[in-house]
Design goal:
Length: 51
């Protein structure tokens, strides 16, 4: 039986408030996607530092 593959081009995209880079929806963010602001742990830790 063939495996179903998910096309990542149809996932929602947000932009990180620290670095401004786009990031896509992840399964681990399923329940809190509305609250996600940072692309990763590094940006979350450096949220008060400006570039």
């Amino acid at each position: 039986m063939p495996r179903k593959t998910l096309s990542k081009e149809h996932l929602p995209v947000k932009y990180c408030v620290v670095c401004g880079l786009p990031f896509k929806w992840r399964k681990k963010w399923k329940r809190v996607w509305e609250n996600v602001k940072y692309c990763g742990e590094r940006c979350r830790r450096n949220k008060h530092k400006s570039k």
